[in-house]
Amino acid sequence: MAVVEINFDGIIGPSHNYAGLSLGNLASASHAGDVAYPRAAALQGLAKMRHNLALGLAQGFLLPLPRPNARFLSAIGADGSENPRLTAAAWSASSMWTANAATVSPAADTADGRCHLTAANLVTMPHRSQEWPDTVRQLRAAFANAEHFAVHDAVPPCFGDEGAANHMRMCAGHASPGLEIFVYGTTGGAFPARQHVEAGRAVARLHGLDPARTLFVEQNPDAIAAGAFHNDVVAVANERVLFTHELAFADPAGTYAAIRERLPEAEIVVVPADAVSLADAIKSYLFNAQLLSLPSGEMALVIPTEAWEHVRVRAWLDAMLASNGPIRRVLPVDVRQSMANGGGPACLRLRVVTDPATVDPRFLLDAAKASLIEAVITEHWPESIAPAQIGSPELAQTVIAARRALLEALDLTELA
To answer: Is 347 part of the annotated catalytic residue set?
Structure first.
C-alpha cells in the first residue's frame, strides 16, 4: 500500500462566531463579542488546504457539524430562558478544529494492523462536549473500510479527552511502527487541565498499542496556566522530529530521555524560554503549526502569519533555518479568523496515516473539489455574524441551508 500522512482539515462552518466559550483559550476570550466573518474564515481554511495540496501532500477534509444543534437545545429544555452561553454553545462552529475530533493510531502501531480512531469526548467545555456523536458518524463514513479502519466511540465522560491535540506520534517514517505520546494535565492554575491520563490509557488499550512504544507525559502546569490549553499550543511532532517549547512538559529532561530510549533517531528541537517566552509562543501560535514531510524529503513548518510577523519569534525562526537543522522550510499561512477564535494551522487538521485508496474518496481534496467547495462557501456562507444574531431564527435557516448545500454538492447528504 502507498501509506502516506493525510491531513483532514475541518471546513469552517457557516455559524462561525466569537462567543468566547473556551475557558483557558486566551485568543477566544480576547475576541469574545467581536463580529465574525464565516465566509472569509472558511475561504482562509480552504486556502490552507490548497496550499498543502500544492506542496504535493495528500489532503482531506471533514465537514461542519449540524448547527444550531437542535439535539443539544432539546436536551437542555431550551425555551429562551436559558443562559445565552448555552444558546451560543448550540451554534458553535468549533468542530472546525479537527485536531480535537479524534485520536488516531496508524495500522503500523496497532495489534490488529488496522488504523484506529477514537472520537474525543471534549467534556471539559459544554460547547464541544456535544460534538462527538456527529463526529463519529462522519468518521465512520470517511473510514468505512472495516478491513483497514476501526472507529471507536468516545471514552466515558468521567475522563476528559481532547483527541489528537494532546497526542503526538514519532517514527522513522510514517509507514514505520511509531512511538505514541499521550500528553495529559493534572492542574493548570485558574484554567482546567482538559486531558486526563486515564483517557489516554483507555485510548491506548482500545487501539491495541504496544506498551513499550507508548508514553504518557505530563504537560507543564505552568504552560496550561499561561494559556496552552492543549499540548499542540506548545509542541508538535512529525516523524523523527519533536519541535517543542522548553516549558512544554512537566519533566522535559525525562521526557526527552524516554523518547530517545524508544526512538534513538529522534531529533528534538527545543525553543528556549529566554528566546521565545511562553507568552510569545502562545500569542503567536508558533507551535500550533503543521510540521510536514514534503515529497522532496525536507521537513517544513506551516505556521500562522501571526508567528512570522512576531519580532522575537521571527528572529528565532531565522536562526533555526540558518542552523541547517531538521526543519528546512517555514511557510506562513493566513488563518486569521480561526486564530482569533483560538485555533491555528495545527488545530484545523487531523492527521491520518493510511493509503488514500482506503478512504472514502468524497472526503479527499483535489483541485476540482476545492473549486466546488469554494463556490458553495461563496454563495451560501454568511458574510458576517454579530453577537446579537446568535439565536436568530432567520440566521439559523441560513446556516442550516448553507450546510445542506455543501452536503448536496459533495454527495454526502447521509450526514444531514
So the answer is: yes
Residue recorded with cell 517566552: 277
Catalytic residue among 5, 131, 162, 306: 162
Pairing of strands 349-354, 59-62: unpaired
Residue 81 burial (CB < 10 Å; 0-12/13-18/19+)? Answer: exposed
Q: Which residue in the block uniquely carries the three cell numbers 521571527?
A: 314
CATH of 4-415, one of 3.75.10.20, 3.40.50.1820, 3.10.580.10, 3.40.50.2300: 3.75.10.20
Return phi, psi of residue 304, to 5°.
-70, 150
Torsions phi, psi for 206 (to 5 deg)? -60, -35
- In 133-149, which positions are buried (b, 16+ CB within 10 angstroms) versus exposed (e)? ebbbebbebbbeeeebb
Encode pLDDT of 43-62 as tens digits: 999 999 999 999 999 999 99
Sheet with 299-304: strands ordered across = 290-293, 299-304, 327-333
Q: Which residue has the cell 487501539?
A: 207
**Is 162 marked active-site?**
yes
Mean pLDDT of the chain: 97
3-class DSSP state for residue 144?
coil
Tens of pLDDT, residue by residue over 16-31, are 999 999 988 898 889 9
Helix axes 367-380 and 393-409, enclosed angle (nearest 10) = 160
Domain ranges of the chain: 4-415
**Other Cβ atoms closer than 10 A to 150:** 18
The three grid cell numbers given for residue 311, joined into one nine-digit string: 519580532
User: Taking a C-beta distance cutoff of 8 angstroms, is the pair 290, 171 a contact?
Assistant: no
Does the structure show a pLDDT above 70 at 1?
no
Measured CA to CA, the distance from residue 327 to residue 70 in angstroms comes to: 45
Collapsing DSSP to helix, strand or coil, 90 comes out as helix
Say if CB 243 and CB 301 are below 8 A apart.
yes
**Is 218 a residue of the active site?**
no
Residue listed under C-alpha cell 432567520: 394
In the set 31, 51, 207, 230, the catalytic residue is 230
**Residue 375: per-residue pLDDT:** 98
Instruction: Give the burial class of 190: count Cβ atoms within 10 A of its Cβ; 0-12 exposed, 13-18 middle, 19 or more buried.
Output: exposed
Yes or no: say if 13 and 64 are a contact pair by the CB < 8 Å rule. Answer: yes
